[in-house]
Amino acid sequence: MDLSRRLTKAKDLLLAGEDESEVPDVIGYQDVRHQWERGYRETLEQAIADGACGPDSTNIIDFPKTDLTVRPLARFSTRDRLIDQKLMGFSSRT
Fold first, then answer.
1. Sign of the alpha-carbon dihedral angle for 63, 16, 79, 36
2. Cα–Cα distance between 27 and 75 in angstroms, integer?
3. Contact criterion met (CB below 8 Å) for 84 and 5
4. What is the rounded CA–CA span in Å between residue 23 and residue 72?
5. β-pair partners for 56
6. If you average pLDDT over every residue of the chain, what do you get?
7. What distance in Å separates the CA atoms of residue 8 and residue 65, rounded to the nearest whole number?
């Protein structure tokens, strides 16, 4: 499968799992939907081709565990999740 199709599959899986996410990235998902065919896919393809596909940033979120405790949750940016899915293969839902 070529890079463009694999990235599109990764995007489709990411968006399909939006409702299942513990910490949804509503803005990121909307940006991907809106920008995908307007150059965003090509930007990701170029980043991968250039080897610039390491994580840009990670957010650490205190996710509630109980009423009194939280657990740290690391969340990649939408870009990094798409590249990770493409490079590491797709989830078991493939």
1. negative
2. 14
3. no
4. 12
5. none
6. 80
7. 34
Q: What sign has the CA pseudo-torsion 29, 42, 7, 55?
A: negative
Tell if the pTM clears 0.90, that is, is over it: no
User: Can you tell me which residue has the tokens 């299942």?
Assistant: 20
Q: What angle do CA 92, 21, 39 make, to 5 degrees?
A: 80
All residues at 6 or more sequence positions from 68 whose CB lies less than 8 Å from its CB, including other chains? none
Distance in angstroms (rounded) separating the CA atoms of residues 36 and 18: 16
Show the low-confidence residues of the chain (pLDDT under 70). 1, 22-27, 88-94
- Return the amino acid letter for 40: Y
Structure letter (DSSP) for residue 92: T
Alpha carbon separation from 50 to 39, 40, 76 (Å, rounded): 16, 15, 20
Tokens describing residue 88: 């590491």
